Amino acid sequence: MHLSQLIIGTIFAIGGLVLTIVAFFASLWILIYGLPLLVLGIVILLNKKEDMIEPIKRRGGKK
After folding, report:
1. What are the domain boundaries of the chain?
2. Chain centroid to CA 57: how far?
């Protein structure tokens, strides 16, 4: 996991969690912003395919 992926994922997840909690005390329309941020942060933190390098598949011969 890259450092930038960890930082952005954590910021999004914590920000989404804070907005979701605030939405229950203030106004429910804040959930429109809080839940997607929370989900996006979790997806960024759990994404492992970004770190993998796919091998080059050669088709045919050299020209």
Report:
1. 3-46
2. 29
